[in-house]
Design a protein that fits this description.
This protein is mainly β and 797 residues long. Strands 36, 38, 39, 41, 46, 47, 48 and 50 form an eight-stranded antiparallel sheet that branches. Strands 1, 2, 3, 6 and 7 form a five-stranded antiparallel sheet that branches. Strand 26 and strand 27 form a beta hairpin. The longest helix has 18 residues.
């Protein structure tokens, strides 16, 4: 209903009500509480307390969306009693009964209409790896039809312990029996329907009741069929004209004596092509190239002395069409244009319902987000139908490293089998640095002439980070002036008088006249295409020195410069010397982010060292600890996978202050001593791995390395920019003759006008007689051309 939140929000219990609900719910699920289940100890009540807090936050969201319940009931994973029906468990001499009970907890915010146990038997008692019929609700000819048994609800436990608060929501335990079966394989699941007719199904569980004997020897099977190019290969999913089409197949349970690809082009006659070996139980063959628009259908057959096998995609055959190189390539019904989009740029999402769940619907919405969160409000953005496709274009946010999406018609959702569609995004190009000082970029020239109708011109320009405070402007022609906030890219609507508008902009240079902060060294991972020993991007630093043992290394990632290490005294380190030693008042800034830390020896961290490599200060986490450490001992910052912004300031030759800010948290200030001259930065990952297949969660990143310096004092200095904007006079506009004064000066009469029309001719006219006739003439030497400003006309005696 409302899902604009991040995992950082969930971890800290901040942001939206949905994030807070997840925060408390996951807290309730911690195993620490469940160890005390029904013991009467205080921790026994914490599950209920946390659950009550979660429900309170969730109900805020639900109550804002009355009638918005489109989800089926929640079903706890089905359990059974007895666990080995018809066979042996704890007593090896007395088998358990064949009848058994299936139970679970089921609940729904809208109330339950029914809870049903579904079960079926397998026809031969075996679930071969070559078939998925036992794993699907649809089944097939290897299993019998489903049986339905209504499940009855009860409260379990019947009474709560005294330390537990009253739950604000509670699921009943539902149970039903499967009876009268023996020596058979049974599949079962639970189906629940709420009062809005929304349905949920649990996963399918399998159990052998009694004994079914050893399975027969498996028969030859074709376990996989794919093509290259093809949708199974994200790096080359489309077949283009002139490109060879390769068919690949994998077999199991013995080598076939023959294996063939059967293919047909555009519905034509089928041809048979023998495949060649391509490794153990692997086969391939090229069918040659095809013309644009041709579509190839294919399937594979194999046989040995006893068995024949066919893999024809469940009777639908496999197919691929030859497309032009710029045609969209669909993966499970979704394509992007361009196929590799970039953050900050526009991407077009194409959805082809085909024979998917949304086939034939009248409208489709795309619900999309980025970086695993930041989702659009449900149901998402409406798409436009073009032929058999639906499309929507949007701009990918600049911070995105991937985008995710699913589709719906407002009621039914296609979420790619619960996995959504997720596509990598090329990181946004870093914005070029703004040059120091003040510059006018529009207009591009220093002098520009505009028509009389242009009474306002939108000046645009840049203001560097070396400027401080607000920016000011003046117009010498009109006398107008003002100020506006400092911005890297600014816009100033400037009113124009008629004539030459000399507009001057000014900004004070930081550090002049008063103390300010300047950057003396800076580097970031976004400036690198790769990260290797000897690299030296940025400024103010010497080259990187990268070292790693055999089972450790370095890499570049959107999260920053990455380091990894595996167990067994393996080290990866990165050292960056400073161009000059750290001075008093200097601050070293760096962002660090760790993942998991191996509890039996892992260590990651950062350090500041002298020129000989001796550590003078460090901030690190050792596996098995609870808090990050500095030379003064443990801090009050507990382990986190969120980024930590570290600011180390040398306050005296032998003293420092440190400020550490966890993302989404509050700052932690520390002070300490330093014995030596700081001249290097170091990051490391040591012994941080295990043989558990999870080492990709243990990477360590650093980024945004900077040194800033407090400077200032002396006279104020300014950066200025000037432009002339000449506004032409109007062709038919009446001259301005108002606010006239007639002072007398030394016998001359003067005519003073407070303003004039630029380019118009002004003069004093006189007539020697008025009666009986008039003869108006321009007074000699009185004529002047208007300037757009004040004007004085002299009339000699």
């Amino acid at each position: 209903l409302e899902n604009t939140y991040s995992m950082n929000d969930v971890e800290w219990g901040i942001g939206s009500d949905t994030a807070k609900a997840w925060h408390f719910y996951l807290n309730a699920e911690t195993s620490c509480y469940w160890y005390w289940d029904h013991s009467g100890e205080p921790w026994d009540g914490y599950v209920t307390r946390a659950s009550n807090l979660a429900v309170a936050e969730a109900m805020k969201v639900i109550n804002r969306h009355p009638g918005g319940d489109t989800k089926g009931p929640s079903i706890f994973p089905p359990q059974r009693n007895v666990y080995n029906p018809g066979s042996y468990m704890w007593d090896e001499n007395d088998p358990d009964p064949s009848d058994f009970t299936v139970w679970s907890y089921v609940d729904d915010v809208s109330g339950l209409e029914s809870v049903t146990l579904k079960w079926r038997t397998d026809k031969d008692g075996y679930n071969p790896l070559s078939s998925i019929q036992n794993e699907t609700y649809a089944g097939g000819d290897e299993v019998n039809a489903w049986n339905s048994v209504p499940m009855s609800g009860s409260w379990d436990p019947a009474q709560k312990v005294s330390v537990c608060p009253d739950p604000v929501a509670r699921a009943q335990m539902f149970s039903a029996d499967i009876t009268g079966q023996n020596n058979v394989l049974i599949d079962y699941y639970i189906e629940a329907v709420d009062s809005n007719n929304n349905t949920s199904k649990s996963e399918i569980i399998h159990v052998v009741v009694g004994e079914v004997g050893a399975p027969p020897d498996p028969e030859l099977a074709i376990t996989s069929v794919s093509s290259w190019p093809g949708p199974a290969h994200a790096d080359n999913p489309a077949l283009n004209p002139g490109e060879d089409l390769w068919i690949d197949a994998l077999t199991a349970y013995g080598p076939p004596t023959q294996i063939h690809v059967h293919s047909s082009v555009d519905g034509g006659a089928w041809t048979q092509t023998a495949m060649q070996t391509n490794g153990d139980n692997a086969w391939h063959v090229s069918l040659g190239s095809f013309d644009e628009g041709e579509c190839v259908a294919f399937y594979v057959t194999a046989s040995d002395a006893e068995t024949s096998a066919t893999n024809n995609n469940g009777g639908a055959n496999y197919s691929i069409c030859c497309l032009s190189s710029n045609a969209p390539v669909f993966v499970n019904g979704v394509a992007l244009v361009p196929p590799s989009p970039q953050a900050g740029q526009t991407v077009e999402v194409l959805y082809d319902p085909g024979n998917r769940i949304l086939s034939g619907v009248g409208s489709v919405n795309v619900h999309h987000g980025y970086n695993g969160a930041n989702w659009t409000e449900s149901p998402g953005d409406a798409m436009t139908q073009t032929g058999s496709w639906w499309s929507l274009s949007f701009t990918i946010p600049s911070p995105a490293t991937n985008i995710s999406m699913c589709f719906n018609d407002g009621t039914t959702w296609d979420n790619n089998g619960g996995q959504d569609w997720t596509f990598s995004v090329i990181p946004a190009e870093p914005e070029p640095p703004v040059p120091d000082g003040l510059a006018i970029t529009n207009p591009a020239s220093s002098t520009v002439t505009v028509g009389h109708a242009v009474a306002e011109f939108s000046l645009q320009g840049s203001a560097g980070t070396n400027l401080a405070g607000t920016l000011t402007w003046t117009n010498a022609l009109s006398g107008a002036s003002g100020s506006f906030p400092h911005a890297p890219h600014w816009v100033l609507p400037a009113s124009l008088a008629i004539g030459d508008n000399l507009i001057t902009l000014s900004g004070q240079i930081a550090g002049s006249g008063s103390a300010s902060v300047s950057t003396v060294a800076v580097d970031s991972a976004s400036a690198y295409a790769a990260w290797a020993n000897g690299d030296n991007e940025g400024s103010g630093f010497a080259t990187w020195t990268l070292y790693h043992d055999a089972n450790a290394g370095h890499f570049l990632d959107p999260a920053g410069w990455g380091l990894w290490s595996h167990a067994g005294t393996n080290l990866a380190e990165a050292v960056r010397p400073f161009a000059a030693p750290l001075a008093v008042g200097d601050t070293v800034h760096v962002s660090m982010q760790n993942g998991w830390i191996w509890e039996e020896g892992g260590s990651v961290g950062i350090a500041l060292r002298d020129s000989e490599g001796a550590t003078l200060w460090e901030f690190y986490f050792n596996g098995g600890d609870s808090f990050y450490n500095t030379p003064a001992g443990p801090t009050d910052i507990g382990w986190t996978t969120n980024a930590l912004a570290v600011d180390f300031t040398l306050t005296a030759a032998d003293a420092c202050s440190v400020n550490i800010l966890p993302a989404g948290g509050t700052a932690h200030p520390y002070t300490g001593t330093v014995a030596g001259t700081i001249a290097q930065f170091r990051a490391w990952s040591y012994d941080n791995g295990a043989d558990d297949g999870q080492n990709h969660f243990r990477n360590f990143f650093v980024d945004d390395l900077r040194i800033t310096r407090l400077t200032g004092g002396g006279d104020e200095e300014y950066s200025t920019a000037v432009v002339h904007i000449i506004r032409e006079p109007g062709s038919g506009e009446a001259p301005v003759i108002q606010n006239v004064t007639l002072p007398e000066a030394g016998g001359d009469m003067q005519v003073n006008l407070s303003e004039s029309l630029d380019g118009a001719t002004y003069a004093v006219w006189a007539s020697p007689t008025l009666i009986p006739t008039q003869n108006w003439q321009i007074v000699e030497s009185s004529a002047q051309t208007g300037t757009g400003g004040a004007l004085q006309l002299s009339c000699p005696p």
